[in-house]
Amino acid sequence: MDKQYVVGVDVGGQTSKIGVVDARGDVLVQSVIRTDGHSDAADFVADLAAAIKELVVKANKVGEIRGIGVGAPNGNYYTGEIAFAPNLEWAANEAVPFSRMLSEALGGIPVSLTNDANAAAVGEMTYGAAKGMKDFIMITLGTGVGSGIVINGQVVYGHDGFAGELGHTCAVRNNGRQCNCGKTGCLEAYCSAIGVARTAREWLDMTDEPSLLRELEKITSKDVYEAAKEGDALALRVFNFTGAMLGRSLADFIEFSAPEAIVLFGGLARSKEFIYEPTYKAMNENVLPLWKGKVDLLFSQLKESDAAILGASALAWEL
Amino acid sequence: MDKQYVVGVDVGGQTSKIGVVDARGDVLVQSVIRTDGHSDAADFVADLAAAIKELVVKANKVGEIRGIGVGAPNGNYYTGEIAFAPNLEWAANEAVPFSRMLSEALGGIPVSLTNDANAAAVGEMTYGAAKGMKDFIMITLGTGVGSGIVINGQVVYGHDGFAGELGHTCAVRNNGRQCNCGKTGCLEAYCSAIGVARTAREWLDMTDEPSLLRELEKITSKDVYEAAKEGDALALRVFNFTGAMLGRSLADFIEFSAPEAIVLFGGLARSKEFIYEPTYKAMNENVLPLWKGKVDLLFSQLKESDAAILGASALAWEL
Question: Residue A176, Cα to own-chain centre: how many angstroms?
């Protein structure tokens, strides 16, 4: 009988989450280890392998694991490397052959690796809002803006494995905001959590308009969300602006791959009540007539606490 | 033995070109019929079928034709329909089941249909500059701007068969030019033959700068090209501007699908000597660091006179 369980690993800058997952997308057990504080990659891989072994024992699934799926910043599906990931100190300045190292540390069990946004797309297709879809685009609205593109049932990796950097397509051509990537005007500079906070701060500085946000020393996107829930006019306008920026970029993405749906995921997507309407409106105002009202705008259906693990684990079913 | 020849049909607004093609991409014989002047689709299909039969007899390949490939405006690969194509009077207001009609008129021979830009991409992949490539983007710079996207060796048709409308992604966000599609600021409004002529006209009207183009009643992109060859400063700047607009959009396309190359095709691509440098420069200035200098910018290698037929014919090899 085929092995019926997989392990999903979500490598984040500070912590990494591990879970044992069944074919229905239930996370049986999960644990967390530190990602930071490791001097080199071998050190981290050893700790991760030990934690995986321990978790599989705890789940009572020794010998029943089909493979390991890993979602990691700058993870490359083709090469299995995590390369030059600024937020991972042990992979910031080199290309780490992560899949091979982890597989070796676990006695040869197969490992599949991709970046976090692609993993989220595979997770959504396997267990979530995109179940049964062959053509959709996943947009992750977190600290940054990431994307996973699925065409004909397959994640688009491109010639080099790095396709799907939609957060760095141009949203504002002239005098756009500086983005962390070195370019200006990127979608990420406006529609990430950081972008939302920045919009609020800029608008507060520009006017004397009263706002709940004015009392705060440092504004986060969560503060903007809380203020919007209180009916704060400026906070509500920040979401309208953010949605309009996102929607008009989504229109261009539709013109590229004609997806059945666009799925939003991540922290900012939790502000669904404020972000959906302006995004959907701008998307349809800016897209070619043939797609107006034809492409669904959906939100992730994966449980927030499990989503990252599920996304990564879904990769392992293809092993 | 497999049938060793295919027929390519390029349906244009005024004329349609037909050719019998061998596996090496040589057009053995070709002919042309009128597309316009037909009262309805059945009428045109009957004429086209007669012309195809006649040409196959002339090529002495009766019984050796594997299939027919058709490139047509608004051609849908999935449905085999030509639907609501403004430039085809017999398909302007309805969805014509073109593949089925042509196949029936030819005794059941298989017919494959797609739009002209996708056909060009398949042609380039089969016989031209993209031979052996699995990930590339074809941009057709003609009266309009079209595109054919190839990912993992397959043309991207999307959920509905209409993917790849890159000419209508947004090049200018604010106060962009009106495009024929109804939107404003589309890439096509700047980087098509019509866009080039319009840029020249706008600049002539705005200044008193001397230019060879000033004498002309009506300016075409060919006039701008001829003037640029004479060293006309304004004409040269028009190409620099057009290339810069195109290049920065190409950067976004790279961020989508990480292609190995972008292939330019069509009338404007013939102005290679003026368009290549500003396009390549802007593409690399606007793309994420990881792709700088990594994606080739190529020009079609198909003979101009045969290209449209070859592109369409290449579809038939997949039948």
Answer: 23
Q: How confident is the model at residue B92, as a pLDDT?
A: 86
Closest CA relative to residue B246, chosen from B287, B210, B282: B282
Q: What domains are there in chain A, each with its CATH number? A: 5-122+305-316 (3.30.420.40), 132-300 (3.30.420.40)
Q: How far apart are CA A52 and CA A102, in angstroms?
A: 10
Asked if residues B125 and B314 have their Cβ atoms less than 8 Å apart, the reply is: yes
- Cα separation, B33 vs B14, in Å, equals 9
Residue of A252, A260, A263, A285 for testing the chain B interface, max B β-carbons within 10 Å: A252
- Candidates A135, A165, A256; nearest CB to B288: A165
Predicted TM-score (pTM) of the model is 0.92
Using an 8 Å CB-CB cutoff, list residues of chain B that contact chain A.
134-135, 149, 151-152, 154, 156-166, 168-170, 172-174, 181-183, 248, 251-253, 255-260, 286, 288-291, 294
pLDDT for residue A291: 96
What are the distances in angstroms from CA B141 to CA B167, B187, B217, B221, B269?
9, 10, 24, 11, 6
Query: Which of A159, A258, A260 is facing B258, going by the closest CB pair?
Result: A159
CB atoms within 10 A of CB B100: 15
Q: Does pLDDT of B1 surpass 70?
A: no
Pairing of β B261-265 and β A65-71? unpaired
CB of B102 closer than 8 Å to CB of B290: no
H/E stretch holding A150 reads strand A145-151
How are beta strands B154-155 and B145-151 bridged, if at all?
Answer: antiparallel
For B170, nearest residue in chain A (alpha carbons) = A252
Mean pLDDT (chain B) is: 94
DSSP B45-69: HHHHHHHHHHHHHHHT-TT-EEEEE
Count of CA atoms in the C-beta half-sphere (13 A) of A286: 29
Residue A277 makes CB contacts below 8 A (sequence gap 6+) with: A243
Rounded to whole angstroms, what are the CA distances from A167 to A34, A62, A133? 27, 40, 22
